[in-house]
Structures are given as C-alpha cells and as structure tokens.
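Researcher: Structure for this, please.
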Amino acid sequence: GMAVAMFSIFAMLAIPLKSYSLPLIVLSGAPFGIIGALLGHLVLGYSLSMMSMFGIIALTGVVVNDSLVLVVTANLYRGRGMGAFEAVHQAAVRRLRPIILTSLTTSLGLLPMMLETSSQARFLVPLAISLGFGVLFSTLVILLLVPSLYLVREDLIDMARVAKGGEARGNGH
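Model: Predicted structure, token format:
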C-alpha cells in the first residue's frame, strides 16, 4: 500500500511541477521520516503496530509538505531569473521558519499523547510516536538534503545542456 501511495504522490506532484525529477527530490525526505519513526519506537520502547504504520503514512504527508514548500519557492525564484544557488538559498531563508514551526508544533502537540499512560488512549501512542519523532528527524534532514539535491539537479541539467552544444543556464555557484 505504501508503494501505491508514494507513486500516487509522485504522479500528483509531477503534473504541477512539470518535472519527473522534482517529485523525487520532494519525496527524498520520506525515508528519513520513517527512520525517525523507527528510532522513536526504539527510544521509547514500543514495538511497531498497525497504528505505527498509520502514523508513518500521516508522517509522509508532513514530510512531503515541508519539502514541497522549499522546492516550489526555489522554482519561483529560479523563474525570476536567479541562479540556482541564490534561488535555493533564498528559498531556504524564506521558508526556514514555517518549516521549523510546522515540525515543532506537530511534534510538541503530540508529546502529551506519546506520554499518555491511560489504558483507553494507549493504542494511539505508537501513531503519535511515528508522527512526532519522524517529523523531527526528517525536518533536520530535509533542510539540508532538499536544497542539495535541487542544486545537483540543476548542475546535471546544465551539464546535459552543455553536452548538447548549448549554453549553461548559469547556476550562480
């Protein structure tokens, strides 16, 4: 089911981004979210459950949102004529606070549920752990990985353009 969900997200992103590579950059943070969720279960001593899997699915949406915000903003600046490095730098500066706030409020908002000891709410704890720890871990990775992959993509596009006999677009780095 997760493979179908990831392919669906890829397809839905490829259309508005008009690219096959940008959705891969956006989705690149998802595995790190899953690693964060697994680490959270390990740290808190919980085993994976079906509710953990639901949390990982929800986590994927938050991770995609954080990455998408960066990529769309970089594309916006790129469309205004900025070099790739300057566009990514400006996108990271402009979107750092919203990404951090989204991640912190999600994780901290789930903290009471993660620490819940009531038998009635106990089945929701693995979901909260997956979502809370996954968001925290993936956010740190996304803020470094997505801009880096974006610049690598732009360099590859320029190398292909030069190899065809054209002129590099000028990445500005």
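Researcher: Any notable elements?
Model: The chain is about 80% helix and 0% strand. The chain has a mean pLDDT of 89.
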